[in-house]
Structure formats: structure tokens, C-alpha cells
Design brief:
The chain is mainly alpha-helical. It has one domain (3-60). The chain has two helices and no strands.
């Protein structure tokens, strides 16, 4: 398997963790943790965007 596969797997696992943190904060009613978890989720997704954009750019070449 390629390095890219493991990088994407790692980022998707971070997104999954952020989802669990988000659900846990929601259940406990902790607004600070909820806000932090939401930011963590957005940050992880923002790191994934260039990985997929780069893939789309290669297809057009």
C-alpha cells in the first residue's frame, strides 16, 4: 500500500476520533468541549481537502 493510503487513513481516523469527541461532548452538555471538538473536526477535514484536490488535478493532466 502506498504512503498516500496511510496518510489518508490517518486523517480519516482523526476525523472519526473528532466525531466521537463531538458526540461525547454533546451527551455531557459541555459547551466548551463541544466547540473544541467541532473545531478539531473542521481542522481535520481541512487537511483532507488538498489530498483529494491534488488527486482531481492529476486526473485532468
Amino acid at each position: 500500500m502506498s504512503d498516500r493510503f496511510y496518510i489518508l487513513l490517518g486523517w480519516w481516523l482523526f476525523v472519526a476520533c473528532a466525531g466521537f469527541f463531538l458526540a461525547s461532548a454533546w451527551r455531557s452538555g459541555d459547551l466548551l468541549a463541544l466547540f473544541g471538538s467541532a473545531l478539531f473536526m473542521v481542522a481535520n477535514i481541512s487537511f483532507l481537502i488538498p489530498m483529494y484536490r491534488r488527486n482531481e488535478e492529476r486526473r485532468h493532466d
